[in-house]
Amino acid sequence: MKKILTIILILISFSFLAFFSYGQTITPEASSTPKISITNQDQKAIENLKEKVANKVQEIIKKNNKAIVGRVTSISDNLIKIKSVDNKEYEIKIDSTLTKFYKISGVNQKEIKIDDIAKNDYLIVSGIINDKTVDANAVFIDQPFLVESGKVIEVNKENYTVKVITSDKTVYTLSFETFTKQYILNIKTLDIEKSGFSKMIVGDRIHFIAEIKGNEKDNTYEAAKTLLIPQEYFIK
Amino acid sequence: MKKETLIAIFMGLIFGGFFGIFLINKNKDLSLSKNKILAPTSILTQKNSQNNVVDFIPLEIKEPNDYFITNENNIDIVGKATKDSLIVVQTPIKDIVYKNEKEDFKINIPLALGENVIKIVDYPKDKTFDSQEKILRVYYLKIEL
Hints:
The complex is a heterodimer.
Chain A: H1 2-17, H2 40-63, E1 67-75, E2 79-83, E3 89-93, E4 100-105, E5 108-112, E6 122-130, E7 133-142, E8 145-156, E9 161-165, E10 171-185, E11 192-194, E12 205-211, E13 220-229, H3 232-235
Chain B: H1 3-35, H2 42-51, E1 60-63, E2 68-70, E3 74-80, E4 85-90, E5 95-100, E6 104-110, E7 114-123, E8 132-140
Parallel strand pairs in B: 2-8
Antiparallel strand pairs in B: 1-3, 3-6, 4-5, 4-7, 7-8
């Protein structure tokens, strides 16, 4: 009787063990000779992946291409100091064998020497940026432009000037010269058309571009190009 | 040992086993109901999307980055602005006026050699909103990148 009892107990115990044995899977048998076959589709997928990686790398390189710009404050044989528009100072390290110098005038880029760079020149620097220093690969002398927009607050028809207030409350005086290209927005067609000084009225919006020469006084600039948006556009 | 005792032990083991299994399953259900993140129903989602209708979208420029250098003479300005607003893109060589029919926009602009200060102004159709501005500096340089 004791034997029967022991057998029953063992059987019951084993039957409970079966409840806790979930999660087992059958392992596939390992083949003695592994077979790798690449189909045309696989090949295409690999090539696509390679292309995507290359494109991504190119994209990252492009995104890290950043210029440092500013006016020259001091210059020596292997170091140029510049001050940016936001008053940050940068040291431009020059490698006599690597760094190249250019001057941009219009659509031309002419190679120059470091001696051609003078104090107060506006420089564009391309190279490796380490916080406030740049190991320059290329240095360009360029002409900076002021690109702004605002509301016309005064029109002086005697001396051909207008006063403009921008969104940050800066007031500019624009003088209209013979070379100033003037355009106006046709508020019906939204086409840009040629315009004249007489069409300018207080309250209009004006977008303007002017060359920054560095010797301007009282925020007065000679307008190179203007685009007028009549105030009627904002009333309709 | 008596026959009755044996039957009692046997029955006790069987019931004990079933009770144990019941407890384990119940515990699993309890823990699932406490930790599982329930997805909102479709009705809820629709209601939320209807409530979150926004007319005004702040001007956003996704591409290019400020102070970006390129060796190509044109670039795409990619961004987002309020639908039906008037976008004015100013560059030293070209002005573009564009009616933003969708929220996302992509405008190709020509670049001058050297520095290109690009000013983008967004005038929303609803005149109660102020215009918004962004300034980008892009450099077209004839160099190997």
